[in-house]
Amino acid sequence: MMLEKNRACLMVIDVQTRLLPGIPDSETLVERCTALVGLANELEIPVFGSEQYPDGVGPMDDTLKAAIGADNVAGKTHFSCVDAPECADLMQQMTQDQIVVCGMESHACVLQSALSFKAQGKEVFVVADAIASRHAADTEFAIARMREEGIKLVTCEMVGFEWLRRSDTAGFKTFSKAFLR
How far apart (Å, rounded) are the C-alpha atoms in residues 167 and 171? Predict the structure, then answer.
């Protein structure tokens, strides 16, 4: 099953400034998440975000939060966005049956959110080159577990090509500037 823009939304999980120094190649993670948000916004695909315990850990990356829109970002204390009462309003807005997930950390909030979305009957696509953890092994094992659980693993470019389906659109220009360099 391919991604379809009219059935999809994007969930950006916990890309928080204070956590980024511990994430290998964090600049690339932020760039990829921000580019996915930009493409989703251009294609009018709903975008949501979360912040893990923002009172203690701090806010999401400013550029990313601005691209998502502060009203579409919720703080939480549960690792899974789905299980977090603080995210209930966002979850109610998420009527799409395809959920594209990016963010951090792969083995905690990303994994638990993806599994919870799948348990709700959603078709879950985790963007493997736009997730990260402090330790490479955690991402490696999170990806293996998600694959075993039937979660679809994609890359940023796969998401873009599937959402767009054609190259003769304004959206493709945005996509190619962000990803095809």
Answer: 8
Q: For residues 146-169, b (16+ Cβ closer than 10 Å) or e, as one string?
A: beeeebbbbebebbbbbbbeeeee
**Closest Cα to residue 28, out of 162, 178, 146?**
178
Residues of the chain with pLDDT under 70: none
Q: Is the peptide bond before 42 cis (omega within 30 degrees of 0)?
A: no
Q: What is the pLDDT of residue 180?
A: 80
Q: How far apart are CA 82 and CA 173, in angstroms?
A: 34
- Sheet containing strand 8-13, edge to edge, reads 73-76, 47-52, 8-13, 98-104, 123-132, 152-154
Four-way CATH pick for 5-96+103-176: 3.40.50.10860, 3.40.50.12780, 3.40.50.2300, 3.40.50.850: 3.40.50.850
What pLDDT does 171 receive? 86
Report d(CA 133, CA 149) in Å as an integer.
19
Tell which residue, 72, 9, 2, has the closest CA to residue 39.
9
Asked whether 174 and 39 are in contact (CB, 8 A), the reply is yes
Cα dihedral 106, 124, 47, 38, rounded to 10, equals 80
Return the pLDDT at 122. Answer: 97
